[in-house]
Design a protein that fits this description.
heterodimer, A: 532 residues, Cytochrome Bc1 Complex, Chain D, domain 2, Immunoglobulin-like, 4 domains, 14-stranded mixed sheet, two-stranded antiparallel ribbon, 12 helices, 16 strands, 29% helix, B: 256 residues, mainly alpha, 2 domains, 9 helices, elongated
Amino acid sequence: MIKLFKNKVVNFGLIVFSVVAFYKIEAVNAQASHMFRTYKHEVPQKLPENQNAVADGKKVYEKRCWYCHGITGGGNGPAAKTMFPKPRNFTRNEFKVRSTPFGSVPTDEDLFRIITSGIEGTAMPFWNTISETERWQVVYYLKTFNEQFKKDTSPEVLSVGNVVATQESIEKGRELFKEMKCYNCHGEDGRGNGPLTVAMQTQWNMPYRARDLTQSWNFKGGNTAGDIYRTISTGFNETPMGSYKDKLTDEERWSLAHYVESISKKMASDVVVKVKLLESGEMPGNPADEAWGQVTPMEIPLAGQIIAHPRLWEPSVDSVMIRGLYNDDEIAFLVEWDDRTNRQEDIFRDAVSLQFPAKIPDSLKKPYFGMGDSGGIVNLWQWKAYWNEGFGSVAEAPGSEPGSIMELNAKGFKKISVQPPEGQDVTGGGVYVNGRWKVVFKRALKTEDEKKDIQFEIGKLIPIAFAAWDGSNSDAGGQKSISAWYYILLEKPMPKTVFVYVLIAVVMGASVELWFLARLRRFPPKLEEDQE
Amino acid sequence: MGNKRSQYLMFWVVAAVIFLFFFLKYVSPVVFQVLMGKGHPMPTPSTLMMWYMIMGILAGLVYATTSNQKFVDFLGFLLPGQGTFLKFFLQKIFFIAFPLVVGWFVYSYSLPGAASPVELRIQHPTLPQKYEKMENPFREKDADIQRKCIEEGKVLFQTYCRPCHGSKADGNGPFANSFRLRPINFQDPGTIATVVDNYLFWRIKEGGPGLPSESTPWDSAMPAWDGDLEDEQMWKIIMGEYDTAGVMPRQREKAE
């Protein structure tokens, strides 16, 4: 009996150990983010469209929709002032996501889908939280704002279907992208930085921004190949994005959609930025260095700074991508983000900043994530695009000028100080290529000024936060895009001793097992004690 | 007792534990996705997973030791002799797999850590004393004025709070993704429905910086609206906020 008990204990111990190990592995993989709204295609049975439905729709509209879209549907509700893009004006035919020809109003189903799914990158939420009946009612009500809904009663509806992408179709799409001059608005690499977009934004001050085709999360009306095909086919009303239905065959539009899908990416976000050990070679000082290819990038979503006055309600930079490398002496970061223009104007300059606590926190306590506080000082590394007063009021940062880097400290957003010239230790520079800024920051792991400069340590979680400014969006000072605290971790190189530990563990595991089996064979469990 | 079957008791127990692991890891996220009508799988949280695995293994052990007969059968699986080829084969697999699994655990343990830090915080700190006695000046007004205040509050809410807390007050505003402490979902019955107006007044007025340190003020993106909004506007926002979220403030106990 005692023997049996002993064996039970051994077994139990081993099993508990394995459970703890399961837990550990799970914790590493637990980061799964589903941050964005998705376009939902299914539409349920329609409700009869009649006076009662419209009257009920009015109630829903005046309870939930009018704050942004306006009481008369003009897209000018009281809350619209803190929004960009602006809410849809229902009295005009500026409906974007449609399965009907360019210039027509959308179908009831189109409106239902948008109300259900919301639109990422805008203030439009997903209303699948109200009943289907209410959604149909509100569709019927908002149709009363625009006479055209009465005229276009049976528009030709595009049926999307499904065509699978092939290497060939993507290649063909790439050629069509050039042939149809899509790059005029969307830019050569699809970042929405085409010359027409830039001119409309900066010279004519028009609200049109060609979609950044690399950021799939911001596509209006879905980001599957079918959704892109629909947009190419029907266009967006009252925008420069026209319909290509008559200019391209069905097959060609699918190819173009496949190409656009192939250049779009998902946002790969996480909490800890892993800074990789650079095993050999020099620390890269410029963004084009091949060494950056070794590092898996991570993306950080940004929001407008609305914590303190002056606030930025309409941010234009919605994410930055970050990579880190270190060696025995130095650490370097590559920060990238999409920006449609490279125009700099007086105080409105493109910029990016990394924020660290001046000292790695010993406890949970960190400085306030928005520029620190009286109890916690932060160290800021800020890069600003080059601008020269001699250039006139608006200028493009020349490619040869990498911009300037400043090291600052802050104890709250009102107490910011630039470090003296002898304290400036960060080097690096930026380059603007095809709608994307790439900026490198580089510094020694340790500096002499331990009070003001972050001292990096290997294997410790070090808080980091980000800020970005878009000059052409009139970002300056406190009007910027910001993130919360994230972490960087200078990854310990895989110690060679790991394999020794593993070997020991395997040998120990095997010994315990052999001992256990030997014992079991020598004293096989029997039932006699109980039976006799 | 069906002797033939119980020869494989240990195998079945181990198989059940492995099955449980894969169920929690891959099947249950999809099941919950369908049940809750979400557009994405719902991964099992790692702590929950740990507890389920402990329970599963304990259940297996308890089952294997419910009678001495069972326990003998359970261990008997490891004994040599009169078995089929299948049993012989499974024995060898167990024999080889055990040390390898142990080695693998040690390996994954000693990999340079990449786990997210533990960030503990108290979500509902105690209301500071100076806010305790305050009253929402508009709650006692007649119905017409109240309705007007709610409507004004909703406009203010949609203007200033919507970017993070969302048009529906569900914590899904366009800025919500950027803040790792996600803006609070006011529709959740565990949030504003459990407190009174004063509490929200404190949170709006002092924001993240006004939190005590056990509630990690340094991570909170809630602005301190004191100075940018009038007190009256805040009281109205609170009324509009409850209305937008579709919940009611906690009822005060009646003081005699």
